[in-house]
Amino acid sequence: MSSTITTSTTPQITLSSSEPVIGTLRYIPAGHVPEKSPHNYHLPAISEFSDVRHLSLRNMRPLPSVSDLAAAENHAQLATHGFTAVTHPTTLHFPPFNLSSWKDPSLLTEHYIPDTVAMLKRITGCSAVITEALLLRSALWTESDALATHAGHGRDIESDEPQPDPSAETLSLETGFPAFIGFNASQGGVSPAPKPHVDYSPTGSRTHLRKYHPELTMAAAAIIAAEDALLAEGKSLKENYHSADSPGGPRWALYSIWRPLKPVRRDPLALLDQRTLRDEDFISVNITTPCLGREDGSMETHEAEGYLASYREGHEWNWIEDQKPEEVLVIGLFDSGMEREGGIASGGTLHSSVELAGREGEEARESLELRCLCVW
């Protein structure tokens, strides 16, 4: 399939350098049905994203602190944009900690997770944050990366290199709760995802609660019970989970908390303002996902539905120019409180790493994602 290379007519965004910043983003061609990836956790192959667009990126600077976020006019907010960005240094940003500290699961558990939980409660007003995974990206992009063999899964995937079984210690880390993904030194870190996507559709979000990890399912027990009761009555969750006619269950949302470990010089993360999305832009795709934490050690997987997209004039992409480690993105993946009014993605918005001309020779981006369930 040949690539369509198009420059958007969206007005150019001028930054402090007085030069517009254009990023390369790849969409699924309109009407095309992409073939799912054979690799665990992976989106379809890059060849499926053959509608190549060179689009203006809106710089989100300056970034407010967490305490100033709500009053920050004209700044991206979760409720309107589907994402937000704040300046939020953590314990690990100060001595005696350094870059290597961010790759130490014990230090992340002791310091970073509590710091992030506190931040999320302040931003969202939720009562509980359940951390389900931390994902380290530290490699240049490749079609199949360390995600494919995470926790010993995917050993049957063709490879030029042997794929040894993980040690008991590594397996415990990779199948625990939260799961640490991309921290296996023998497999290397995960690579960027240069494919606009929403990790979970509403259906995929609900599958995720029930299938990803037993401890996540346990934490979401009240949510699942309320949803299952509505489904048993033949009621639509979108229309009834948060309605005046039904008590429903607690509001819940899935978020990805994304921050670089060093200043970003290539493959920055770009996010699409969800107000510029339409239902017809989305293309559903199944993503094969391991079922982690099974007592029998089984290599069972499940299909989690996510969204890709085709291009439409008016899409507005946002980024943080030369994003620093103290600057963090909070990315909405799903919000049950927005499902009735929020359209098909229900609080989730497209995001992707984006290519910048002239940055190809820079060292690989390093970033950490904390993925979590928030409950109100």
CATH-derived architecture: Sandwich
Helix and strand element order? EEEHEHEHEHHHHEEEEEEEEE
| Biggest sheet architecture | 7 strands, mixed
The DSSP helix count reads 7
How would the global form be characterised? globular
Distance between the amino and carboxyl termini: 46 Å
Q: CATH topology, anyone?
A: Jelly Rolls
CATH class type: Mainly Beta
- What percentage of the residues does DSSP assign to strands (E)? 25-35%
* Average pLDDT reading: 90
- Output the structural class: alpha+beta
Helix content: 10-25%
Number of domains: 1
Tell me the radius of gyration. 20 Å
Number of strands: 15
Instruction: Provide the low-confidence segments as ranges.
Output: 1-18
Question: What would your notes on this structure say?
Answer:
The protein is an alpha+beta fold and 376 residues long. Helices cover 17% and strands 25% of the residues. The protein contains 7 helices and 15 strands. Strands 1, 2, 3, 8, 11, 13 and 14 form a 7-stranded mixed β-sheet that branches. A 6-stranded mixed β-sheet has the order 4-12-7-15-5-6. A two-stranded antiparallel ribbon has the order 9-10. Helix 3 links the parallel strand 5 and strand 6 (179-181). Belongs to the asaB hydroxylase/desaturase family. This is GA4 desaturase.
List keywords for this structure.
376 residues; alpha+beta; Jelly Rolls; 6-stranded mixed sheet; globular; disordered N terminus
